[in-house]
Records
---
Amino acid sequence: MPELPEVETIVRKLRPDLLGKIIQEADLRWARTLATPSPRKFKELITGQQIQEVTRRAKYFILRLSAYSLLIHLRMSGDLFFKEGTINPEKHDRLILRLLSAPSSEHSDRGRSNLVHTAASLVFNDTRKFGRVWLTENPEEVLGKLGPEPFSRRFTPQWLHAALHSKHRQLKPLLLDQTFLAGLGNIYTDEALNLAKLNPLTVSDTVTVKQAETLHGAIRKVLKEGIRRNGASIDWVYRGGEFQNYFRVYDREGRPCPVCGTKIQRIVVGQRSTHFCPKCQEIRNPR
């Protein structure tokens, strides 16, 4: 599943192509891709909307339109492509937004007929059909339960320590909980815990102030590095990233820890594959 760095990479890549474009038509090719509203209402409301902002919240891709917001969650296998010219839909294309350039000021008085510049499309492709799309006037109806962004002002070492102590859960599943902290997934949680020298099985309310400070810095560091490397390309659904070449522990079972040389172990925590160094991340006794 794409995590915060992968979604941020897609946003940065698509933003220049999408800003200012007008949605001429929505071709919904699999109705269940749409979470809300109904397919008929969706096509009616989105037609003629101009894309005014391209951003994200956690793992959600957000197009802020003239009067609505279009939210897309890629889930396990979703991907977004900008394609110029006329296209033929492919097998796993679930939603195609056909786009037109906004009229230049010198042509603005000639009416909508002058919108036809180079045709283009935003394509949501999703092999496993888990991805979802929302068109809403109030994005908080979808995003409101998310925890803070790792790069937000709210996410401080002090907040993290207090939040960890408000729970009694193992660190790995807690950090994956999007209502606790938004944007982390399996890869970056394993990498951050390793960098912070914290075992994924550590119970959250045993983390010290110093450990919370270290974990806070580790989370931001691995996410920044992931974004700098354009995310990780570890499956055929991802493209262009190179962070996988710099993993410390993730997907490195049996290989030496880059710090101490101990073999990386893989366990299952909260039904998620988890990688760690048993020496660097040895569980310490609680306070």
---
Amino acid sequence: MGVLDALNLQPAAVEKLRLFQALVEKWSPHINLVAKSTLSDLWARHIEDSAFLWQHAPSARIWADFGSGGGFPGLVIAAIAQERAAETRIVLVESDLRKATFLREAARQMALSVDVRSERAETLAPLGADIISARALTALDGLCVLAERHLAPGGTCLFPKGEKFSDEVDAARRSWQFDLEAAENPGHKGSALLVLRNLRRA
């Protein structure tokens, strides 16, 4: 059973995600939203992968997604949150103006309410987010720097990582302390969703 099957979304929500898939396929050749090699497997590699974060997310007033790029996981999360009637403000942070334009247009066509910030997370005013996510943005220690700036007290970080995630954890622990849960992603053997809580400098 896939992640989206397990979430048991209403047909309207699945339809929005199918629309999103079509938009990514249309725009990606022009502004490189996802790697060309993954376009043919977009649903499993990117949409299901993004939905996996929802399964491990606590309720949130503000969810900030850094390096949102092609809308993964941010727009997928926004579609699920809307379907669940969650009162969560989704903030998508993307410094590339072309990709930020895509995010706004995709959100408009999907009828999703999101806040797109075409700025760098390092200089953006602190967001006080309950959840921070970032997918394929930078190494874990760099993500911790961003999280320290923008995370609300008691907040949670959700960072998908590949097969060498343990190396990134070891490197990050030289500068940071955090409680860690590594949730194995069934769709990507060896990779994990790193769930960080109680983040603080070592």
---
Amino acid sequence: MPQPFVLLAVADGMGGVGHGQEASQLAASSLVEYVSHSLCSQQGPYEDWLSLLKAGVQYANRLVYEHSLQEQTAMGTTMTATLVSGTTAYVAHVGDSRLYLYRKTAGLVQKTRDHSLVATLVEEGIIAPDDIYTHPKRNQIYRSLGNEDTVDVDASLIPLAAGDILLLCSDGLWEMVRDQQIESIMITPMPTPSHTARALIQAALAGGGADNVSAIVAQVSNV
């Protein structure tokens, strides 16, 4: 029997007339299906969580790609997934949804890299970091699930400490709410992490709500 774990994922779909929603729902359910099936068929404790998560995202990509071909329509989705087991968060990421880590000693830190045109322009020094919020091509991403039968998946692991807070969110949140305000909301005492997630979503809606907003907040109670 594998050790306890938590699987968190945000998928933000792209495609007209409901196809984006279809793609994101298919990707999320496919990831859960793959991880669950792999663990159920595993004998003894699971060792390579990161490879499992990456393979799950690849599986989700293939199903979205095949569905897109069947429907003969362009559809795709981002995917930011985190599997927490023991004292480690394993991360697999495609697109411009984000994973943040809040730790009291370091503050709020973005732990994923946006696969977007504006992020590349910032890295190359062509535009300033704050310009990503207003650039006319800020919503153009160059990597997503569903474009091809395979996809490059960024993968990493994060050592966790008691009191850490993880935030997974779509660009509908971080484009509307700057990191400083996100951090302020995350450190505001609330009954549960779900209340914090709802407060973040309300802040995004109050800030303009120009896009779908998804957010998951999870707190590490002990390690």
---
Amino acid sequence: MTFCFGACKGQSSFGSNELFLKQTIPMNEVKGRIDHLDANLKNQIVYIAALGNNSLEVVDLKNGKSLHSVKGLDEPQGVVYIPQTNEIMVANGGNGQCKFYNAKTLENTATIDLGSDADDVRYDSIEKKIYVGYGNGGIAVVDAVDRQKIADLKLTGHPEGFQLDKQINKLFVNVPDANQIDVIDLEELKIIARWKTEYGANFPMTVDVSHHIVFIGYRHPGKLVAINAMTGKSIAIADLISDVDDIYFDSSTNKLYASGGGGAINIFSFNNSKFTQMANIPTKTGARTSLLIPQLNAFVLAERAGGGPARLQVYSINK
């Protein structure tokens, strides 16, 4: 195993050449915590689940401005754009509802009630299925075209970050309350393995589907762990920014990007089963949610209001 010595939270700034701050887009009316983001690549639009503001924010990256705010939501947490139908689905943590919106008119087109705490979402664009984590331990499978729940999977606790590896037909789910990662067979929709975690508060996750490696971000303490997806064995560990909420793997460069509320973006390369930290770029404290958009060569960081308005920081990636 390879370690990044020294707490990443206490590191000085380095690696600023990895990202270039291209634009800052204010969201003047947005208050409170900001959760997950997704993008419409064709129109270069980012959708933001503004949890504390009970709204869905629509931001134009191309022209650098906020376009719309869909209000009246109930603690929106997960958001996904569905290009085949040009719709957005928002998962609400407060009432457990998944609400569909026409991306052009922003009219509500359908609602699925999951009961409670609808959270993170993943979209399988090939099968047109949306996976939604919710409640005290469940993942709902939703037909994105018919807008109907078609299957349900019970877990041992509330799911946080999760990822698909379609090549091996598995779904990997962080279940921090149980201190484990649940491994699900996508064909049978059942748990086939439970991996006990090495650290606490395993929230974000990303995956290298080419090499079947799962990357887990921990908060207690801040750690980044690479796991062999076939065996469940850890193969590398590095120190990580505190209060991490999003991590991403860019398969074109073998780099990982992590945003944490501790006030930094950490960037690592992953080669020969080893982490090498490339950057520790300071950010506003509390800015922990982000979105990697490799197709636009962009990394987008959401900053909540406080000492200034909420805003999106849009970085160009130096590859």
